[in-house]
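Inverse folding, one chain.
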């Protein structure tokens, strides 16, 4: 094999190894992940649709490939540590009789079904690893480029204590994605470039929550079932499902002057029909004949939102570059999560539903790069990230609120055609309220009320290696 052949084989192997590590999970506003490179983290990802500093532009704006050398490979790894805690202010376990549309506790914190209230859930956040990898190649001299990106555009993990007061609303929530994104870019002239790509994306989800078997038994009105399901009987419903779907992205970049570069990029929404299993743990034998709590297959439609970003990169001084952007996300594509049975006597009927009522959101970022020496570049950045979650529908699966990013980083060009980027960011998340009701409707299963406040923050540490050839 030739030297170039070995090089290409090693690059493909490196990307394959990173692909094997995916999906990672973390939380940005909503459950969108901005952690798509480490070079942008130091700028709080400000101006990424215009920065086009390395092959990670495949994600942020594929038109930026036209600014890269003949070939480049980039690999990045992000360590993310969110922290989410809950303070209780009048929550209660499920109760029957007067619980529709109210968050009050007429029977006290233990309800009237015999369940123990439980604690505040501990810390629902934990360390997550988010890898990404990119490969670009100039296939037509100064005209055409191809690229391939492997990343995780969306991710979510929250895990509350199994015996906490809000367990009937949520215990574990995990959403993971893998995005494989081949792209092409074309340099029209010395000012304009365009790029486009397709996304083959996989989504895996796992959701758990406690179920009041006592409430299910009482709803049947059958004496033998009620007698065989004592007060306080509960178990865990586990939902797991996955699907592949397709999307696309496009971008335009304009070098309007030697100092100013503009970028506009768009990523499409992607709709999944995830299919999987529903299992009910610790179910009393008396409920084995009740189809409402029978194991079986399920499905759910999930739409991940589209995004539009407008960015500028301004070379204020030979050593100083300024970056800015505005990014809009159409979160209102997600209004609820409805899981439907696809097997058994209740096939076609709703198993569970979570009202989300997401609203569209926006993000603004400002950043700066300073070339301290030929080998060292310093970075800084600030961003404000609006949450799509509305107060009345905030769920412990996603206790999100508006967040402010503060970030710093550096690049070390330690060898010819090779650079190491690293960055650190802290996200200040606004305290969030919870006021979930016991029952949404008279026919819905009681979940207890969840009243209180969430406190959340996030640390992100990233590193990236870039090799041009």
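Residues assigned per position:
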């Amino acid at each position: 094999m030739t030297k170039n052949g070995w090089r290409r084989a090693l690059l493909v192997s490196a990307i394959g190894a990173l692909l094997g590590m995916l999906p990672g999970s973390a939380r940005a506003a909503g459950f969108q992940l901005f952690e798509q490179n480490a070079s942008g983290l130091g700028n709080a990802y400000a101006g990424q649709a215009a920065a086009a500093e390395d092959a990670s532009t495949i994600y942020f704006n594929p038109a930026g490939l036209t600014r890269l050398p003949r070939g480049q490979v980039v690999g990045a790894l992000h360590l993310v540590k969110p922290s989410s805690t809950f303070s209780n202010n009048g929550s209660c376990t499920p109760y029957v009789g007067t619980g529709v549309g109210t968050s009050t506790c007429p029977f006290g914190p233990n309800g009237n079904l015999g369940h123990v209230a439980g604690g505040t859930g501990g810390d629902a956040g934990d360390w997550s690893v988010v890898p990404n990898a990119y490969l670009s190649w100039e296939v037509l001299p100064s005209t055409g480029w191809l690229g391939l990106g492997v990343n995780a555009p969306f991710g979510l993990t929250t895990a509350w204590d199994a015996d906490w007061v809000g367990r009937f609303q949520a215990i574990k929530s995990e959403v993971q994605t893998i995005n494989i994104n081949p792209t092409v870019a074309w340099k029209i002239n010395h000012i304009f470039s365009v790029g486009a790509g397709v996304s083959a994306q996989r989504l895996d989800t796992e959701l758990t929550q406690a179920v009041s078997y006592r409430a299910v038994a009482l709803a049947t009105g059958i004496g033998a079932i009620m007698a065989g399901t004592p007060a306080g009987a509960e178990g865990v419903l586990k939902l797991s499902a996955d699907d592949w779907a397709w999307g696309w992205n496009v971008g335009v970049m304009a070098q309007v002057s030697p100092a100013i570069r503009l970028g506009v990029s768009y990523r499409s929404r992607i709709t999944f029909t995830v299919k999987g299993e529903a299992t009910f743990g610790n179910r009393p034998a008396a409920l084995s004949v009740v189809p409402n709590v029978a194991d079986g297959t399920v499905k759910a439609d999930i739409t991940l939102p589209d995004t539009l970003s407008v960015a500028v990169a301004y070379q204020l001084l030979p050593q100083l570059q300024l970056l800015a952007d505005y990014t809009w996300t159409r979160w209102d594509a997600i209004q609820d999560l409805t899981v439907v049975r696809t097997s058994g006597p209740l096939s076609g009927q709703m198993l569970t539903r979570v009202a989300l009522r997401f609203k569209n959101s926006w993000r603004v970022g400002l950043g700066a790069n300073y070339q301290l020496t030929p080998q060292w570049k310093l970075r800084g950045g600030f961003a404000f990230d609006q949450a799509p979650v509305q107060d009345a529908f905030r769920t412990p699966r996603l206790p999100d609120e508006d967040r402010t990013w503060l970030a710093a980083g550096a690049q070390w060009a330690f060898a010819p055609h090779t650079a190491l980027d690293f960055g650190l960011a802290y996200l200040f998340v606004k305290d969030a309220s919870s006021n979930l009701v016991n029952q949404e409707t008279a026919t819905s299963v009681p979940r207890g009320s969840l009243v209180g406040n969430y406190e959340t923050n996030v640390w992100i540490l990233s590193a990236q290696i870039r090799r041009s050839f």
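The helical segments are 3-21, 48-51, 57-60, 213-220, 223-227. The chain has five helices and 20 strands.
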